[in-house]
Design a protein that fits this description.
Blueprint (H helix, E strand, L loop, with lengths): L17 E5 L2 E4 L4 E4 L2 H4 L8 H11 L13 H13 L6 E6 L2 H16 L3 E5 L8 H6 L17 E4 L10 H15 L5 E6 L2 E2 L5 E2 L2 H13 L3 E5 L23 E4 L10 E6 H4 L15 H13 L2 H25 L5 E7 L2 E6 L8 H14 L1 E2 L1 E3 L5 E4 L7 H17 L2
Parallel strand pairs: 3-15, 5-6, 5-7, 7-10, 10-11
Antiparallel strand pairs: 1-2, 2-3, 4-12, 8-9, 11-12, 13-14, 14-17, 16-17
Helix pairs in contact: 2-9, 3-9, 10-12, 11-12
C-alpha cells in the first residue's frame, strides 16, 4: 500500500497495514496475525473491539452521531461527566470538560491555570511527553524529534530532573535542582503550575518517586502553585489502579485524561477542582467535537468494565506474568543486553543496555523487527529509544500473554 499521500514527517514504527483486531490480537492486510503489545500506544486497555464498547458505539450511532455540546447539550456528555467525576479518586468535588485528545486536555489545562492564578510560568520535567501541539511541545522534556525546526515555542516553561528509582535520579537531587531553579532562574511567585506524569510514558515507563511527589505537593500548597497530573497514558487501570497518582499519596489539582478513556474512540478530558474549572469567562472552554456523543458512549461502556475488582485482577495478573518472566530471563542470562525493568503494575518497560551501561538503541531497533517478523508488535520509549514499553490490553487472555512473552524471549536471545 502506497504512503505517498501521507506526510513523511509522520514516523511509522511498524511498516505494515492492519485490517482488524480482537482483544490483544491484530491481523494485517495479508492475513498475518500479531500479538499486540502496543495497544494503540496505551489506548486499548480493554483491547480491540471490546464487546461492550462496540455495542455502546453501535447503539449511540443510531441515535445521535454528533452535536456540539456548547451549542446544545446532549445526554451522553452529561452522563459521562457525572460518571467520570465519581470515578476520579479524590476527596474534593470534581468538575471538568471533555476534549478530543490528551494534548487538547493539556492545552486547556494551561488556559485554566493561567486564568486561576494570573501567572504564566510552567514547570515540567526531563523526559516528559504531553503532546504534539505547539504549547505542549514546550512542556515535553525532549527536543528530538518534537521540538526540531518549529521555532520559538509558547512559554515560559522550565524543566527539572524527573526523580525515579527507574532512572537513578533521587528525590534529594530533584529537590536540589528545584531549589537552584528558584534561586537562579525564576521567582517562585511567577509559577502557575507544575505538570508531571505519575509514571512517564514516552520517557521509558519511569515511576515517580513517592517522597518527591509528596514534597512537591507540599511545596505547591505553600506557594499557591497548582499541580497537574498527566494520567493520559498511566490512567484507566494501566498500573492496576484507576489512576497512578493514588500510589503517590497525593491529590492533584487538575488531571489530564485521554488514551484508554473511551475504548479506542478519540476522547480526552481535563478534570479537577471545581473552582479552577469555573474561573474562565463563558465560552473560554469548549470545542466543536469535544465530547462527541459516540465517543462519550464508548467512554461510558469503558467505565462500566473498569470496576476496581477488574482493574486489580487484570493489573496483578499481567504484572505477575511480566515480572516472573523478566526475572527468569535475568537468571538464565537469555540476553547480554537485558537491563532493568521499569514502571509499576502492568505498566512495565524493559531496558536494553550495552555492557558499559549505555543505551543499546541499535539492539532495540533490531528487536522491534525480529519480534514483528515473529508475530509480536512492540513499542520503543526512553530518551535514547532503548526501552521496550509493554502495553498489552489489560484484558489479554493469559495464554496469549504467555505466547507473546515467549516470542519476546526468543527474540531477545537473537540480539547481537
Amino acid at each position: 500500500m502506497s504512503h505517498a499521500a501521507i506526510s513523511q514527517s509522520i514516523s511509522i514504527v511498524h511498516p505494515i497495514s492492519l485490517s482488524h483486531g480482537k482483544n490483544a490480537e491484530v491481523w494485517d492486510t495479508t492475513g498475518k496475525r500479531y500479538i499486540d503489545f502496543v495497544g494503540g500506544i496505551g489506548v486499548l486497555n480493554l483491547g480491540h473491539c471490546h464487546p461492550g464498547v462496540v455495542e455502546a458505539i453501535r447503539e449511540q450511532a443510531t441515535k445521535l452521531t454528533h452535536y456540539a455540546f456548547n451549542a446544545v447539550p446532549h445526554a451522553p456528555y452529561l452522563q459521562l461527566m457525572e460518571r467520570l467525576s465519581a470515578f476520579i479518586p479524590v476527596g474534593y468535588p470534581v468538575s471538568g470538560m471533555l476534549t478530543n485528545s490528551g494534548a487538547e486536555a493539556a492545552e486547556n489545562a494551561l488556559k485554566i491555570v493561567r486564568g486561576a492564578t494570573g501567572r504564566t510560568v510552567v514547570i515540567a520535567f526531563d523526559g516528559a511527553f504531553h503532546g504534539r501541539t505547539l504549547a505542549t511541545l514546550n512542556l515535553n522534556g525532549k527536543v528530538a524529534p518534537y521540538k526540531q525546526k518549529v521555532g520559538v515555542l509558547p512559554g515560559p516553561v522550565y524543566h527539572l530532573p524527573y526523580p525515579s528509582a527507574d532512572n537513578g535520579v533521587t528525590c534529594a537531587e530533584a529537590l536540589k535542582a528545584m531549589d537552584r531553579l528558584f534561586s537562579v532562574e525564576i521567582d517562585v511567585s511567577d509559577v502557575a503550575c507544575f505538570i508531571i506524569e505519575p509514571v512517564q510514558g514516552e520517557g521509558g515507563f519511569l515511576a515517580l518517586d513517592i517522597e518527591f511527589a509528596q514534597a512537591l505537593r507540599r511545596f505547591c500548597d505553600a506557594n499557591h502553585i497548582l499541580l497537574i497530573a498527566d494520567e493520559i497514558q498511566s490512567g484507566f487501570g494501566r498500573t492496576g489502579q484507576r489512576f497512578a497518582f493514588s500510589r503517590l499519596g497525593i491529590e492533584p489539582d487538575l488531571i489530564l485524561l485521554g488514551k484508554s478513556i473511551a475504548g479506542g474512540v478519540p476522547l480526552g478530558a481535563v478534570v479537577g477542582r471545581k473552582p479552577l474549572l469555573d474561573n474562565l469567562p463563558k465560552g473560554g472552554l469548549g470545542g466543536t467535537y469535544s465530547g462527541n456523543p459516540i465517543a462519550c458512549a464508548g467512554a461510558l461502556a469503558t467505565l462500566d468494565a473498569m470496576t476496581d475488582a477488574h482493574l486489580k485482577t487484570w493489573g496483578s495478573q499481567q504484572e505477575e506474568a511480566i515480572t516472573r518472566r523478566y526475572h527468569a530471563w535475568r537468571t538464565q542470562g537469555v540476553c547480554a543486553y537485558l537491563g532493568r525493568m521499569t514502571g509499576v503494575g502492568a505498566m512495565r518497560g524493559i531496558e536494553l543496555v550495552n555492557a558499559d551501561g549505555t543505551p543499546a538503541s541499535k539492539q532495540l531497533t533490531q528487536l522491534l523487527e525480529l519480534a514483528r517478523d515473529a508475530g509480536l508488535l512492540l513499542m520503543p520509549s526512553g530518551k535514547s529509544r532503548h526501552i521496550i514499553r509493554l502495553l498489552a490490553p489489560l484484558t489479554i487472555e493469559p495464554a496469549v500473554l504467555e505466547e507473546g512473552l515467549d516470542i519476546l524471549e526468543a527474540c531477545l536471545r537473537q540480539l547481537a
